[in-house]
Amino acid sequence: MKQFGWKWQFGGQWPGDGLPTITVTGGTITPFNSGGVDYIEVLFSASGSMSLSGDVADAQWALAGGGGSGGKLADVTAGMGGGGASFPQQGTGALASGSHTITIGAGGAGVTTASRGNAGSDSVWTRPSGSLTSLGGGYGGGSGTANGGPGGCGGGGAGSGTGGAGTGGFAGGSSDTEGGGGGGAGAVGGNGVNNVAAGNGGAGITISFGSVSRQVCGGGGGSGSSGAPSGTASHGGSAGGLSANSSNATWGGGSGGVAGGSANSGNGGNGFLILRVRADQAQVVMA
Asked: What string of pLDDT tens digits covers the 287 residues of the chain?
């Protein structure tokens, strides 16, 4: 059993009990120091649970759903929309004792036939004090569905479509032949401009309170047509592809749209929960 946390005993600092215990199933535990303070990070990149033996006074968290995937067109006469990112729910405060269930939303599946992309799934943290939900990202517009889908951040439009609306996050970009970029947690998706360029994915955000700094929840780039380059992406989003696949996104980001018969869009990035507690306020163990 891995155990992290401290108590004062016999005038010295020793690992052990005496503090509330967080028992983790399905996540990972990383102890670290920041600014002279010892912390413990709990990371869920797939669904799991926690059991708290008592209240923990001082915690910080970020919960994100899955990102949307980009759309596809079988030829290169028009660009397709990038998938929208999830919008993370961030907060600080106490964690209540009892059972905590974490459902991590998957990124939208990439598409291999001409169609719009797929929306990302929501992530839900069910707590004794009530549930917290982070919406998945919207799908990128594609063949047959020009408008990008709504979500935490909206998907980009395709052909002559509009970008999807964001709830909390930013909207996707519109398309003028060249595909619009998916919206990100930090910025709107770029608009496609005919014969100039597809829209870039909207920028995500940086989460820096954990054991490492992470760039998360960027939108996917739109794809260009035969006369224009595809859009770029950052913060876990993936760039659009012209007669080439777009990559799988990461960290709640959206994947890029694609144009060209052999090109497939990547999966949206899976969601996550990053949780930080002070090591002098809780001990954390794996179940």
From this structure: 444 454 333 233 445 458 999 999 999 999 999 999 999 999 999 999 999 999 999 999 999 999 999 999 999 999 999 999 999 999 999 999 999 999 999 999 999 999 999 999 999 999 999 999 999 999 999 999 999 999 999 999 999 999 999 999 999 999 999 999 999 999 999 999 999 999 999 999 999 999 999 999 999 999 999 989 999 999 999 999 999 999 999 999 999 999 998 999 999 999 999 999 999 999 999 99
* CA dihedral (134, 246, 229, 144) positive or negative: negative
Closest residue by Cα to residue 54 from 5, 123, 9: 5
Query: Can you tell me which residue has the tokens 């759309």?
Result: 71
How far is residue 89's CA from residue 130's CA, in Å, rounded to a whole number? 14
Bridge partners (DSSP) listed for residue 62: 90, 274
CB 201 within 8 A of CB 82: yes
Closest CA to 267 of 252, 284, 282, 277: 252
- Residue 62, both tokens: 């970020």
Contact in structure between 117 and 257 (CB atoms under 8 Å): yes
Surface-to-core class of residue 96, CB atoms within 10 Å of its CB (0-12 exposed, 13-18 middle, 19+ buried) = middle
CB neighbour class for 23 (10 Å; exposed up to 12, middle 13-18, buried from 19): middle
Asked if 71 contacts 110 with a C-beta cutoff of 8 angstroms, the reply is: no
The CA distance from 85 to 66, in Å, is 7
